[in-house]
């Protein structure tokens, strides 16, 4: 029975029994005194009642003091020690509530320090043994993130275990443990996997190639898929792909140009042939008739030339689009030239960005400069990049003899580089849709090469903690979601900031943020965070809490757009929030406008805290963060993303706590939280 009674209940029963026993003994003493002394009993009864009430009151008062200063601090110390035994928490135990327990609180902190020291020693040993692995991991991350092709590694049931930056750019908002088929049309992938399996059965291990479309259908990807096998058993596959949309469009356009050219040439050629036949068949043709035939020949020839020029122009545009043209800084081209031809060559002016093949342009200008220097009649070479509207003109100035168009043509007629095969300098100009010419200046001469201007690239800081892979994803569990282990679920921990506390009275969301937890890891690289236009005034009292005012939300998307994106972000996940009922009320009320239903399972850290720590009266986010040693940045407190991140850290520790007390599945966690639903009204959160 004592196991079913809590410590505080047992202490209360102890003091109650002490008071009751004292009252019984007092009553027996007064009865014995009255029996020996005789006389009226009124005085003894009054004395007994007063003394008994005083004794009961004294026992209750001492019991309350004992409960407040002994029983509850002992329970708090026990809970803190249990938490630190299960979860690695660096913060010391708060000794203030246990100040009347003598050396017990310092002893508990000593145990905590010893446990922390042991864990630290273990962590050092593990870190020393895995240092080489971490170096390889860093190299792997750097290589994979900056690989030009998209790379995705997925399980056999198409859950993403790895993706890189290029894949993110091609397929959209990828995420670990999300289905790849939500971003890529599944039929071509499934067929390719089937063919790969058939080839593997025949002992062939080559990659299978296929063409696939993104789920939205706006891009076509050329992909190849290879199996991932462990000890001879296939556990997943690797998908490597690149964007083939422009290649396919260019191929189709070139086919169309070829067919157009055939049609354009066929009729004038036939007409010219017929005219020649007519002239040759009648040598004695009258002069006027012959003149008419020759005029018709010239007309057909002019039409043929015109159509050929039109096709050539379109072909030039098509080939220019196909050639890789990144944004290149003029400084990079000039630096390459001065390194190759250092004598008597300098550049002036500011940096400009141009869209070009930097190597081809450097080779082209280098060949021209070598040609100009060859006879020793020119010097004082200066390079400049001059912006001219939508173009940037690369100018090469010199003093001395001029250069003829014939010399320039000879330099352009040679192959550009051994690496480009038979690709000529003239081909490079045509590929860039430009020309190169010479002209005199006031101080000498110059060559002008106009190229398309480009915007300066936007440099963004790299994510210092990339989290784009997890090869330890648990196997897909059978059964309903409620029966799945908590450790095998994906979570979206979120928070909202609002115009007020009453959604049914017109208050609206002004910010929503969430981040994912997969396989026990907080994925800081997979974050949803946006302001929301509430369509109404934000009261000053609310702005004082979260810092968001009317000016900040002016022009940002409304809840319909944001809500649909957030719903997609949460697909297949369990929602987690601190006081989740408040945040879910705002989302639920918008379901009709969104045309979507937030029917995800929901866990509330307030209710889970009440289930794990029933003796605690404070279940605020600050109190939970203090319990688990989570640091809350004051600048980010009461921002949606800051509070969501703090809640995620708290919830990650709670998962270990729930496992330790025997709560292992989602259904069990929701049941324990629901038991606290009625109790939470009396709690602070």
Concise account of the structure shown:
The chain has 685 residues and is an alpha+beta fold. Helices cover 49% and strands 17% of the residues.
Can you describe this structure?
This protein is α+β, with helices and mostly antiparallel strands and about 675 residues long. Helix content is about 50%, strand content about 15%. It contains 21 helices and 17 strands. It has a five-stranded antiparallel sheet. A hairpin with a 6-residue loop joins strand 3 (about 210-215) and strand 4. Helix 9 (about 330-340) packs across helix 10. The radius of gyration is 40 Å and the shape is elongated. The two termini are about 35 Å apart. The model is unreliable at about 460-465 (pLDDT under 50).
Helix content: 40-55%
Sheet of most strands: 5 strands, antiparallel
The counted number of beta strands is 17
Strand proportion, as a percent range, falls in 15-25%
Shape descriptor: elongated
**Number of DSSP helical runs:** 21
Give the termini separation: 33 Å
Report the C-alpha radius of gyration, rounded.
40 Å
Give the integer mean of the pLDDT values. Answer: 80
What structural class is derived from the secondary structure elements?
Answer: alpha+beta
Strand order of the largest sheet: 2-1-5-4-3
Any low-confidence stretches, pLDDT <50, length ≥5?
459-466
What secondary-structure arrangement, pairings included, does this model have?
Layout: H1 7-37, H2 42-86, H3 104-129, H4 131-145, E1 150-155, E2 160-163, H5 165-171, H6 186-201, E3 208-213, E4 220-230, E5 233-243, H7 245-281, H8 287-322, E6 327-329, H9 330-340, E7 345-348, E8 353-355, H10 358-373, E9 378-388, E10 391-400, H11 405-412, H12 425-431, E11 437-440, E12 445-452, E13 490-498, E14 509-518, E15 521-531, H13 540-546, H14 550-553, H15 559-569, E16 574-577, H16 580-588, H17 591-594, E17 602-604, H18 605-612, H19 621-628, H20 640-660, H21 666-675
Parallel strand pairs: 7-9, 13-16, 16-17
Antiparallel strand pairs: 1-2, 1-5, 3-4, 4-5, 6-8, 9-10, 10-12, 11-12, 13-14, 14-15
């Amino acid at each position: 029975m004592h196991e079913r009674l809590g410590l505080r209940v047992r202490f209360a029963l102890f003091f109650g029994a002490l008071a009751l026993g004292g009252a019984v003994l007092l009553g027996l003493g007064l009865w014995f005194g009255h029996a020996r002394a005789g006389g009226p009993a009124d005085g003894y009864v009054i004395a007994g009642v007063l003394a008994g009430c005083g004794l009961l009151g004294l026992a209750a008062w001492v019991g309350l003091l004992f409960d407040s200063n002994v029983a509850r601090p002992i329970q708090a110390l026990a809970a803190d020690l249990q938490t630190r035994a299960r979860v690695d928490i660096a913060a010391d135990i708060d000794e203030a509530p246990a100040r009347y327990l003598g050396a017990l609180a310092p002893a508990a902190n000593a145990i905590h320090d010893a446990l922390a020291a042991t864990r630290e020693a273990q962590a050092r040993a593990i870190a020393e043994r895995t240092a080489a692995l971490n170096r390889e991991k860093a190299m792997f991350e750097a290589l994979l993130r900056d690989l030009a092709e998209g790379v995705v590694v997925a399980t056999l049931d198409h859950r993403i275990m790895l993706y890189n930056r290029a894949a993110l750019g091609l397929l959209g908002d990828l995420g670990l443990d999300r289905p790849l088929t939500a971003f890529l049309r599944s039929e071509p992938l499934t067929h390719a996997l089937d063919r790969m399996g058939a080839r593997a059965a025949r002992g062939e291990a080559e990659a299978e190639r296929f063409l696939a479309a993104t789920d939205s259908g706006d891009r076509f990807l050329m992909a190849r898929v290879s199996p991932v096998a462990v000890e001879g058993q296939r556990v997943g596959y690797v998908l490597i792909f690149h964007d083939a949309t422009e290649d396919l469009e260019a191929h189709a356009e070139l086919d169309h140009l070829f067919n157009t050219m055939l049609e354009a040439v066929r009729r004038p050629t036939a007409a010219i042939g017929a005219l020649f036949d007519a002239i040759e068949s009648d040598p004695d043709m009258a002069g006027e008739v012959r003149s008419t035939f020759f005029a018709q020949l010239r007309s057909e020839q002019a039409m043929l030339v015109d159509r050929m020029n039109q096709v050539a122009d379109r072909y030039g545009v098509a080939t220019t689009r196909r050639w890789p043209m990144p944004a290149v800084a003029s400084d990079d081209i000039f630096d390459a030239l001065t390194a190759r031809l250092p004598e008597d060559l300098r550049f002036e002016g500011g940096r400009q960005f141009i869209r070009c093949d930097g190597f081809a342009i450097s080779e082209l200008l280098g060949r021209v400069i070598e040609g100009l220097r060859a006879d020793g009649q020119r010097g004082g070479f200066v390079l400049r990049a001059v912006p001219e509207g939508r173009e940037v003109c690369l100018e090469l100035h010199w003093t001395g003899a001029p250069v003829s168009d014939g010399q320039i043509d000879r330099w352009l007629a040679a192959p550009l580089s051994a690496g480009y095969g038979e690709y000529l300098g003239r081909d490079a100009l045509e590929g860039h849709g430009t020309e190169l010419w010479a002209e005199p200046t006031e101080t000498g001469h110059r060559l002008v090469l106009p190229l398309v201007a480009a915007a300066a690239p936007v440099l963004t800081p790299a994510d210092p903690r990339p989290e784009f892979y997890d090869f330890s994803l648990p196997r897909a569990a059978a059964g309903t979601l409620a029966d799945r282990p908590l450790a095998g679920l994906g979570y979206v921990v979120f928070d909202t900031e609002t115009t007020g506390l009453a959604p049914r009275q017109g208050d609206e969301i002004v910010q929503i943020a969430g981040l994912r937890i997969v396989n026990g890891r907080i994925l800081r690289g997979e974050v949803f965070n946006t302001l929301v236009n509430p369509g109404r005034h934000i009261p000053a009292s609310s702005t004082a809490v979260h810092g968001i005012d009317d000016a900040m939300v002016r022009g940002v998307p409304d809840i319909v757009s944001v809500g649909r994106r957030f719903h997609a972000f949460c697909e297949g996940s369990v929602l987690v929030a601190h006081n989740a009922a408040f945040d879910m009320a705002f989302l639920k009320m918008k379901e009709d406008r969104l045309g979507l239903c937030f029917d995800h399972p929901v866990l509330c850290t307030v209710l889970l805290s009440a289930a794990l720590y029933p003796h605690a009266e404070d279940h605020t986010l600050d109190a939970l963060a203090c319990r688990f040693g989570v640091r809350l940045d004051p600048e980010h407190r009461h921002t949606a993303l800051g509070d969501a991140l703090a809640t995620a850290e708290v919830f990650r520790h709670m998962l270990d706590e729930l496992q330790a007390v025997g709560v292992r599945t989602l259904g069990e966690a929701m049941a324990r939280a629901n038991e606290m639903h009625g109790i939470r009204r009396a709690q602070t959160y």
